Amino acid sequence: MTIAVIDYGMGNLHSVAKALEHVTHENVVITRDPRRILGATRLVLPGQGAIRDCVGELERTELRGLVEDILARQGKPLLGICVGQQMLLEHSEENGGVQCLGVFKGEVRRFPADMRDNFEQRLKVPHMGWNLVEQHHEHPIWEGIDNQEHFYFVHSFYVDATDDAEVFGSTQYGKVNAHVAIGRESTFAVQFHPEKSSRAGLRLLQNFVTWTP
């Protein structure tokens, strides 16, 4: 039994791998070897930085087609993290517009430059730090995690998914309702960083490694 953290040159690979090793006795590998990725029982698609760079590196390492094929089959559990979530949408506003993998319908949008809360106080962009996640639907990934639990975020862009049935969690930042957990069949993806989210994040990773879609 192997969990493969897909290494296409972008993402907090070692922190994610260490967090996974903390919650499971399964073999955790960081790899870009197509054979090891195909042979793994579970996959993690991380991402960090600009989405154009992430999509570009996925193509440069010749892993985009492999990842798209795995996602299309929807058989092997896959967890997307941060930009690894955003890449699963159709399009991102970042970098003047980037076509993404198109697994989920919707757009990745930028937080407004003049972010305000309900009291018209200025908010910083990027959205950085701890925030509550509202769970929309039950899912094995949420098992043992309280609704409105805190998770750790670092992002200037957010997912606006089209299909409410595929939105499993959201976060309110100012007047923006960001879709921070999306899923369908064997794919689940989150905007926050479970590897940096203390007890709740480790529980989410533990749920992922025991999840049978």
Automatic annotation (TrEMBL):
Q: What superkingdom heads the lineage?
A: Bacteria
Q: Please list the reactions this protein catalyses.
A: 5-[(5-phospho-1-deoxy-D-ribulos-1-ylimino)methylamino]-1-(5-phospho-beta-D-ribosyl)imidazole-4-carboxamide + L-glutamine = D-erythro-1-(imidazol-4-yl)glycerol 3-phosphate + 5-amino-1-(5-phospho-beta-D-ribosyl)imidazole-4-carboxamide + L-glutamate + H(+); L-glutamine + H2O = L-glutamate + NH4(+)
Subcellular location field: Cytoplasm
Q: Is Amino-acid biosynthesis a UniProt keyword of this protein?
A: yes
Please give the PROSITE patterns that the UniProt record associates with this protein.
GATASE_TYPE_1 (PS51273)
Keywords in alphabetical order: Amino-acid biosynthesis, Cytoplasm, Glutamine amidotransferase, Histidine biosynthesis, Hydrolase, Lyase
| CDD domains, A to Z | GATase1_IGP_Synthase (cd01748)
What residue intervals traverse the membrane? none
* Pathway assigned in UniProt: Amino-acid biosynthesis; L-histidine biosynthesis; L-histidine from 5-phospho-alpha-D-ribose 1-diphosphate: step 5/9
- Active site per the UniProt annotation: 82 (nucleophile), 193, 195
Q: What InterPro entries is this protein classified in?
A: Class_I_gatase-like (IPR029062), GATASE (IPR017926), Imidazole-glycPsynth_HisH (IPR010139)
Molecular function as annotated in GO: lyase activity
Cross-referenced SUPFAM superfamilies: Class I glutamine amidotransferase-like (SSF52317)
Function field: IGPS catalyzes the conversion of PRFAR and glutamine to IGP, AICAR and glutamate. The HisH subunit catalyzes the hydrolysis of glutamine to glutamate and ammonia as part of the synthesis of IGP and AICAR. The resulting ammonia molecule is channeled to the active site of HisF.
User: What is known about its subunit structure?
Assistant: Heterodimer of HisH and HisF.
This chain belongs to the protein called Imidazole glycerol phosphate synthase subunit HisH
